[in-house]
Amino acid sequence: MSLLLIKNCLLVDPLSGESRGDILLADGLIARAGPRLPLPPGCSVFDAAGLWVFPGFIDAHVHAREPGAERAETLETAALAAAAGGITSILLMPNTSPPMAKPALLRNYAARAKKLPVNVYFSAAATAGRAGKGPSDLAALKRAGARAFTDDGSCLPSGALAELIKKAAALGLPLLDHPEDFSLTGAGVASPAAARRLGLPGIPPEAEAFAVLRDILAAAANGPVHLQHLSLAASAGALRQAKKLGWPVTGETCPHYFELSERDIKINDANFKMKPPLRPEADRRAVLRAIADGTIDVIASDHAPHERRLKAKGFAGAPFGITGLETLAPLCVARLVLTGKISRLRLAQLLSANPAKLLGLKNKGSLRPGCDADLTIIDPLSLKRVPAKFVSRSSNSPFVGLPLRGWPAATVVGGKIVWRAIC
Ligand SMILES: [Zn+2]
Predict the structure, then answer these.
(1) Do residues 264 and 272 lie in contact, with contact meaning Cβ atoms separated by under 8 Å?
(2) How far is the CA of 336 from the centre of ligand 1 (A)?
(3) Between the CA of residue 177 and those of 164, 168, 181, 296, 353, what are the distances in Å?
(4) Is 184 exposed, middle or buried (0-12, 13-18, 19+ CB in 10 A)?
(5) Eight-state DSSP code of residue 113
(6) Could you tell me the CA-to-CA distances from 163 to 167, 169, 215, 228, 239 in Å, in that order?
(7) Residue 389 near residue 420, CB atoms below 8 Å
(8) Distance, CA 151 to ligand 1 centroid (Å)?
(9) Could you give the CA distance from residue 44 to residue 306 in angstroms, rounded to a whole number?
(10) Does the active-site annotation cover 302?
(11) What is the pLDDT of residues 270-320, one digit of tens each?
């Protein structure tokens, strides 16, 4: 029997609240939590005095670049980066090359992912070949291991949206959409004001807002839809209203949309180029409000690693996207919790309980006995700068050099410490 007792910590459980004490992990599950638990024979001990213990953080939006762009990231390096970032489970996006659109391909990668230090789940292409026309064979992809369906990187096609929603709902898996009207995006590279500074075409906010409104109406008529990487006040307002009406829609944002605005963009640095783009300050504030008031359900990294030589092409030529697995937790702790904008329990909902619910991970997202022993242990006092070199194979982050407080101290998956900060 493998036993681990984590002692003297602050336990943050979205179901039962906060308490000080110990937590005992036995054979991959949470056995008990409470004040001063006795030490069973043969049990390892982790003294977590001063540390916060959360149910393992789940990042529901990760690009691991396999197959097709292994020089930017692999399953292995993504999993190691996740562990180093305090993330215990990741959901991979299917916009690989070839796309994760065939059951045999998915089965192959899902088998490899079982050996990795964190839980790696796969989403599969919602449309056949991720070509944006008719639906994939969603049932076959589910049998091959898919946990969700999305065409992330592309927007779900209007012509197949109702059918996709109904089919995903019938299979009991979430349908995720990258809400973007590409006919409005055109060749845009940044928000209109930032693009003017760059002398390049802009991406109008309507590109996101129209797609969000379309998805919300489709959800009201047909069933659940999860909106990925929301970045606008208009999106947050629409989602808030939809929830008031009881419509089955959930929403996600990413740390860059509450931490950065278009004003922060360094015009020579394509590490500020992502989709959706950084927005005006009023949108950043609206995203923060939507995180605090419960409108936003999930914070995910949208970890999008790219080789340095590609990001060196500048705003006009570089691909969209930034890395995020190793900065998700400290940005959320430093900027949301330690500033008093949200409580630790709300953070546990955003990073643990809600993504677990979205992905149907019934045994995750809580510290209750019987749940999987996946834990994220945070040191609220640790202060360091975001490093220039990440565990991830890529380091295309706009946050390099930023001092943050509240880094992960250890990551526990299935009752085992898979990563620990060097003190
Ligand atoms: Zn996307």
Answers:
(1) yes
(2) 23
(3) 11, 12, 12, 15, 20
(4) middle
(5) H
(6) 6, 10, 13, 19, 22
(7) no
(8) 8
(9) 39
(10) yes
(11) 999 999 999 999 999 999 999 999 999 999 999 999 999 999 999 999 999
